[in-house]
Amino acid sequence: MDLVLQLLFTGIGIGAVYALVALGFVLIFRATNVVNFAQGEFSMVAAYLMVVFSVDLGWPYWLSFLIALAGMALFGVIFNLGVYYPLRNRTYLPVIIATIGASILLSNSVLAIYGPQPQVLQGWFDTPGIQLGPVYLDSQYLLIIGVTILLVLFNFWFFEKTLLGKKLQATSQDKEMASLLGISVSTMIMITFIYSAVLGGLAGILVAPVLFVSIQMGSTIALKAFAATIIGGFGDVAGAIVGGLALGVIETFGAAYISVPYKDGFAFLVLIAFLVFRPQGIFGERVAEKA
Amino acid sequence: MKLTRREFSAGLAAGLAAPALMRSAWAQGATIKIGMCVPVTGPAAEQGLWAQNGAKLALAAVNKAGGVLGKQVELVIEDDQTTNPGIVLAFSKLAAQSDIVAFLGSIRSTQVQAMAPDVIKVGKPVMIGGTNPDLTHSGNPWLFRFRPNDNYSGRVIADFGVNTLGKKKWAIVHSTDAFGTAGGKALSEALTKLGAPPVLDQGYANQSQDFTPVVLAVKQSGADVLGTYFTFENDLGIFARQLRQLGVNIPWVGSPSVVAVSSTKLAGPALFNTYGVADFAEDSSDAAKAFGKAYRDAYKTAPDNQSAWPYDAITILSAAINKAGSTDPNKIRDAILATQKFAGAEGEYNFDKNGDGLHGYNVVKNDKGKIVYDKHIDFND
Question: What is the ipTM of this complex?
Answer without folding.
Answer: 0.85
